[in-house]
Amino acid sequence: MSRAQCPRCMRPQSHCLCELITHLDSRTRVLLLQHPSEVNHALNTARLAALGLINAELLVGEVFEDLDRLLSPPGYQARLLFPGADAQLLQASAASGENLPVLLVVPDGTWRKARKLLHLNPLLAQLPRVTLPEGAVSRYRLRKAPGPGALSTLEAIVQALEILEPATSFAPLLRPFEALIEGQIEAMGAETYLKNHGDKS
Fold first, then answer.
1. In this predicted model, what pLDDT tens digit does every residue of 73-110 receive, in sequence order?
2. Which residues form the DTW domain (predicted)?
3. Taking the model in full, what pTM does it have?
4. Domains of the chain: which residue ranges?
5. How far apart are CA 125 and CA 96, in angstroms?
6. Which residues of 16-33 are buried (b: 16+ CB within 10 A; e: fewer)?
7. What Å distances lie between residue 70 and 56, 172, 178, CA to CA?
8. pLDDT above 80 (res 33)
9. How far apart are CA 26 and CA 101, in angstroms?
10. Would you state the pLDDT for residue 72?
11. Strands (DSSP E) found in 8-122
12. Predicted local distance difference test score (pLDDT) of residue 191
């Protein structure tokens, strides 16, 4: 028999995160395009981002039929948050001389799945790309990062928003994420956590 699930955060009712999910507004609009393989992921940080941000939308799929409309909301300039040789370092709109707010398009999935989304949706690949400054350290202590600066989707969005809108703190978005990690560490036990994820230096 499956455990009762919260319909909002999709966590078991006994571990519901809704009390920790904030309701922040932003000038930046965030469009999350989630690969279906991420929907049932234990963390699903893209969902946490969409729940915590008023001006955000989460869509699940591999091919997005209505992408032309989604990428062209009136009064916004679309940017794809994804690394690449032609990606520009993200900076505050005022510093870059751009007055229109940003539509930040964020593919959510493993690197392989995210690249597949770009391949299957050519309009995505045509967007100007932006990337985050190097050196960020993920708070996701239960997974070995695939490379330096590798962040969860939620962490990347928080960092991007704080660059685009430096007068606002988006750190409260991370509260349910941190609680989720603490809960997983507690479930596995301190000894197991230290053995598998502790500092090896």
1. 999 999 999 998 899 999 886 555 568 899 999 999 99
2. 2-189
3. 0.84
4. 21-132+149-189
5. 22
6. bbeebbbebebebbbbbb
7. 12, 27, 31
8. yes
9. 10
10. 95
11. 29-34, 56-60, 77-81, 88-89, 102-108
12. 59
Q: What is the CATH number of domain 21-132+149-189?
A: 3.40.1280
Six-digit token pair at 76?
Answer: 């916004």
Asked if residues 123 and 71 have their Cβ atoms less than 8 Å apart, the reply is yes
CA distance 132 to 1: 43
**Angstrom distances, CA of residue 26 to CA of 42, 71, 141:** 27, 18, 28
Q: Is residue 58 classed as helix, strand or coil in its secondary structure?
A: strand
List pLDDT tens digits, range 138-151: 656 455 444 445 78
One-letter amino acid for residue 64 of the chain: F
Q: Which two tokens stand for residue 58?
A: 């989460």
Q: Which two tokens stand for residue 102?
A: 């940003």
| Rounded Cα distance, 178 and 104, in Å | 23
- Helical segments of 8-130, H only: 45-52, 67-70, 111-120, 122-125
Identify the pLDDT of residue 54.
97
Report the pLDDT value the prediction gives residue 193, as an integer from 0 to 100: 46
